[in-house]
Amino acid sequence: MKKLLLSLCSILLLVFSIVHVAAEDPYRFFDWNVTYGDIYPLGVKQQGILINGQFPGPEIYSVTNDNLIINVHNSLPEPFLISWNGVQQRRNSYEDGVYGTTCPIPPGKNFTYKLQVKDQIGSFFYFPSLAFHKAAGGYGAIKVLSRPRIPVPFPDPANDYSLLIGDWYHINHTKLKSILDFGHRLPFPQGVLINGRANGTSFTVEQGKTYRLRISNVGLQNTLNFRIEGHDLKLVEVEGTHTVQTTYSSIDVHVGQSYSVLITADQAPKDYYIVASTRFTDNVITSTASLHYSNSQQPISGPIPSGPTTQIDWSIKQARSIRTNLTASGPRPNPQGSYHYGLVNITKTFKLESSAAQVNGKQRYAINSVSFIPSDDTPLKLADYFKIGGVFQVGSIPDTPSRKPMYLDTSVMSADFRAFVEIVFQNHEDIVQSYHIDGYSFWVVGMDGGVWSPESRNQYNLRDAVSRCTTQVYPKSWTTIYVALDNVGMWNVRTEFWARQYLGQQFYLRVYSPVESIRDEYPIPNNALLCGKAAGRTTRPL
After folding, report:
1. CATH no. of 341-528
2. Residues of CATH 2.60.40.420 domain(s) within the chain?
């Protein structure tokens, strides 16, 4: 009888394994070599970070639920990491690729990221997260397409182009890093790039056809206005959410944000300006590319079309008009509006305020008076997993402003798994802020000028607010988001103004489940790099 039971168990295990393998989501494999190389984005030679010899790096093409196996060889003379802006790393913050979650790849070594774009669609990007490498390149586009059986709320475009726009310095990134390390602010950028060039990039279209453009601001600090001469932009998707299809003449893309628009080649057959220019700056920097009709009879010519410059109200009005298409399917067949976020009870309110100050004679930036500094070479997530003391302390940053003078700490905020929280970003400064939360999308329910108060909730959009992973906060203003904390892990909350992030305007949100079940969080990857106080420990056998 015992042998019979063992045989039955073996058969059931075999059947389960076969079903599991048969049902497993597809795999896509990438092999990347990261090097320094000469680039000429502003017409003069400078050192850039190349991936497989490319600047920008290779595009990642994927479909909902695909497993992405990305083997990164670090051929730089210093440690390197890549992070995946907008990829939620469900139950798997170990792969997030930032200081607090992942050990850097040592020079001459490699590391294989194992990502899954679980229940996601949309437009995102990757970037290098350490040592101000982002100012040297190493970034690229990520496309996550819907599965064939999931309807998309617009016809298939004739082509699907990625446009990576961002401000740029001709100063070497190591010198920029040194300026920050010595406690100084960076100068104003020298240019704006479109797919790695200040001008000369071209996109070919056929007359009468419609195209999808995925626009991501991969820059270091500045909001950019994007427009195409003579062509309307129909917004269809924002960072994984199908939107109400509103038509704009131009769109503000804040740093770290991604948008998808449709354009139709319905004008006379010639070449037209594509423009990206800085917003809210005294000195407006402009970059151009060309929209080339395949039957063009005339090269690009004439004045560059102008766009908005310092107008805040224009930008706020546009931001409020971006709403979720409630009837469209997202990554699953159910409509995006089937989750009624406005009816869920808020379990906690966090209020986050930025600030700038001198600490020990050097420029620093903070959230709720705490300016983030690494504790040592041990990623916070590894310290948490191995229960290593002395690396960080939960609660080292308050969840409301403390009004204390700015101070340095390895700031980690605690949050409960499955809580539904309200986060208010309060900006008392004179600049546009842009905030990103790793591991999550959130509903941008409200934004306005002045100081947030409980009465501000009366103007929230509790029906069709856009769900995204990066939001702007206008000068002397507030923005409120709702977040369902359904993803256990150690998640970076940061400004996308990269110098401010580097100098402390960030922290980690520890979303914790006391159950410690693989249902809620995957075990540490068996190939995880172990460094700092985690060096010499073991991961797991499988």
Report:
1. 2.60.40.420
2. 21-148, 152-325, 341-528
